[in-house]
Amino acid sequence: MEIRDAGPADWAAIWPFLRAIVRAGETYMLPQDLDEAAARAFWMRAGTLVAVEGDTVLGTAKIVPNQDGPGAHVANASFMVDPAHAGVPPPDARLRRPARDVALTAGVAAAATTTARPSARRPPPT
What we know:
By secondary structure, this protein is an alpha+beta fold. The chain has one domain: Aminopeptidase (3-Layer(aba) Sandwich). Helices cover 29% and strands 28% of the residues. A hairpin with an 8-residue loop joins strand 3 and strand 4. The longest helix has 15 residues, at 91-105. The radius of gyration is 14 Å and the shape is globular. It starts with a strand and ends in a 10-residue tail after the last strand.
């Protein structure tokens, strides 16, 4: 598995599983009818990574400031994994260190993380 910066061409692979995860309403509290343009603007900002095997996007991460203003020194890393590729270890586990590195390179002091794992495919940890 390779972790790399996401490019415009990766969106076509990200959008189907991002849409399914958002519509499920279990892990990301975004509008469940989020359209593609709004989703792309939300997810594909600076600091977006993908986990790939060959030409297949397994998952993605985005790293942004947690808050504007005084909270900008803390990063928020969010992860989404294509349910078809939620194996052991899941791609989000491999995305964590590169996401942290992107945040630290940007000069943040700490990072918070959120991971979307649809419950139908992977039960929560006990």
